Hints:
This protein is of the alpha/beta class and about 240 residues long. It is built from 8 helices and 12 strands. It has a 6-stranded mixed sheet with strand order 8-4-7-5-6-12. The chain is globular.
Amino acid sequence: TDIPSTLSWPADLDTHWRDPQLLLSQTCGYPLVTRLKDAVQVVGVFRYTAPGCRGIHYRSELIVRSDDTARKLGELRGRAAALNAVDSHSGANALQALVAPLAVNGVFFGRCVLTGSHRRSIEAVQSGRADIAAIDCVTLAGLRQQTPERLQRLRVLGSTPAAPGLPLVTAAATSAAELKSVQKALGRACDDPALAEVREALFIGGFEIAAASAWQVIEDVRRAAAGVRWPEPLQRMS
Length: 238
C-alpha cells in the first residue's frame, strides 16, 4: 500500500469517507451507524484520557453561560441550541435524546443554530446567539489546556451518557492484510515512547481494535430521539 506522506483535511467528508482508496480516517459514530455502514470498515478506536472519558467511551458536556438562571435541562425549553452538525452524535444526537422526554408535541428547543464545529458552538453560546451546546469532552479538554479564555463565562449544566469514541475507519475495499497492518501500526504508535508527548497533547491513552457493533448504542440513541425534531428553519452561523 502507498502510504500518504501528509494528512489531508477534506472539505467534503462524505466523499472522503466513501473513497475506495481510503486507508485511514476518523469519523463520527453517527454517520458510521447510518449512511457509512457499507462504505467503510472499522479499524479500531483510541482510548482518550480527557476528563469524561473511560476506556473507549466518551461523553459530551452541556455548556451554558455562567449567568444563565437554568439549573436543569428542562428549564431551557423554548430556548436556542447550537449544533455543530445535525449528523454529529456528540453535538446533536446525544442532546436530542436527552430532550426527547421533555419535548412538547415533538419539539423542545425554540430555535437551533448550525455552527459547523464545536468551537463555533461554544462561541455561539458565549455571544448569546444560542443558550446551550453539547460539546465532546476531548474538545473541551483541549480548549481548557490550550486556550482556556475560549471557555470564559461558561459553565457545565450536565452531561450526556457515555458512548464509544470516534471510530477509525478504512475503505470497505481495504484487504484483510492491509487492515491488520494498519491496526498494528496504530498499536505501535500508541506504545512508542518517542510519541509519548504527542499522545499526551492529544489525550490519546491507547488504541483498541473494535467491531462496528460497538457503536450500536449510538443507533439506539438515535431511535430514542426519533420522537423529537429540531425546530425549523435551522439557522446557520455566519
